[in-house]
Amino acid sequence: VIDLDPYGTASPFLDAAVQAVADGGLLCVTCTDMPVLSGNYPETCYAKYGSISLKGSYHAEMALRILLHSIDSAANRYKRYVVPWVSVAVDFYVRLFVRVYQSPAEVKNSCTRRGHIYQSTQCPTFYIQPMAEIDSRTTQKAKKDHNVSYCNASLSVPRVCEETGGRLKIGGPFWTAPIHNQEVVKELLRRVEEGDAPYPIPTAPRLSGLLTAVSEELPDVPFFYSLASLCAAVNQRTVPMLEFKSALLHAGYRVSNFHKEPLAIKTDAPNSVVWDIVKSYGIQYPSDPPSKKKQQHESSKKILAKAPSMEANFTIHESLKDRKKALRFPPNPEAGWGPKRRAGRPPLQPASTAEKSDADCTSPASKKSRES
């Protein structure tokens, strides 16, 4: 086991770590430079991790997928590859647990686990574009013999956003394969809930809630929508979470949350279906018109100009009625919770404080105390 937990980024240590860990060993990586991984500094993210980050509601999951891409790319240079066990975004950092294996043949499959994301500049719509795929002419026998042919994936992304006609900005490459091993997650959850551990766990309720949320995620769907962002884009009241999920389930699609974001909508439904549900809710439950101070944006008019192609059913789905109770999204333990200053020199005092301390030193009382 090798555990990387530096202050800030772990990128300088990844190359040595993937070489030092044993075949099949466990590599644990923590990164706290969330502004870089979340799209505030895309040029720094590319320099450290070899990926361009984007600003979006899915920034926490994007940070995990960027780091997985960076770890796997470092391992591929030494004929190694990684298999994610658990990948979580907690508080102000990301924490990954991956197994590292030696296999030159499996390293070639790494290109099929990469992709780019195209984000609309005028609405929350996004598209996922794989980088490579296995050639369709490859037979099953060739796959068993590791004699696989690969080809570039065909572009499936439109030139502009289909909802607003806005431009698309590109980010990536990212890790597009599953970021958790659900069997491992379920076993960890069982041990926490049953107390099957060599020592007591003080944070068992919080850990149980986190693992429960992770176990409910769709494993094969990268990135998610924010329910608040979808409704804000068309200036209407937010659809209740259970009703939005029910509409997707009634339409024949899958849906789940993301363990870091309570309002996340992770689904395999296409963008058009997601927007049809948002517009259907606005038709069935109309909101008050926007005030004069808050005029409707041009992109909102373009989205609402298209009539929904389906009538959404917002009746609560049977699968959502009996939900396991768990502390999935605990509140912060204290006010002002977050990363503190880096260890080193004390912070500079404001000018007013410095002047006050100088005045205290030159006061008659202070002079008298020094003379005595």
Q: Give the count of helical stretches.
A: 14
Shape: globular
How much of the residues is beta strand, in percent? 15-25%
Tell me the strand order in the biggest sheet. 1-2-4-3
The percent of residues in helical segments reads: 25-40%
Q: What string, H for helix and E for strand, traces the elements in order?
A: EHEHHHEEHEEEHEEHHEHHEEHHHH
What class, by secondary structure content? alpha+beta
- Low-pLDDT stretches are 365-372
Q: Which oligomeric state applies?
A: single chain
- Termini Cα gap: 62 Å
* Mean residue pLDDT: 88
Rg from C-alpha positions?
25 Å
What is the number of strand segments?
A: 12
The major pleated sheet works out as: 4 strands, mixed
Structure explained in plain terms:
- This protein has a 4-stranded mixed sheet. A 3-stranded antiparallel sheet has the order 6-5-9. Strands 10-12-11 form a 3-stranded antiparallel sheet.
- Residues 365-372 have low confidence and may be disordered.
- A hairpin with a 5-residue loop joins strand 5 (114-120) and strand 6.
- The chain contains 14 helices and 12 strands.
- Helix 1 crosses helix 4 (59-76) and helix 7 packs antiparallel against helix 8 (204-215).
- The relative contact order is 0.10.
- It has helices at residues 11-20, 34-37, 42-49, 59-76, 104-107, 140-144, 182-194, 204-215, 227-233, 241-250, 271-284, 298-305, 351-361, 364-371, and strands spanning 2-4, 25-31, 80-90, 93-102, 114-120, 126-130, 132-134, 150-152, 168-175, 225-226, 255-258, 261-267.
- With 372 residues, it is α+β, with helices and mostly antiparallel strands.
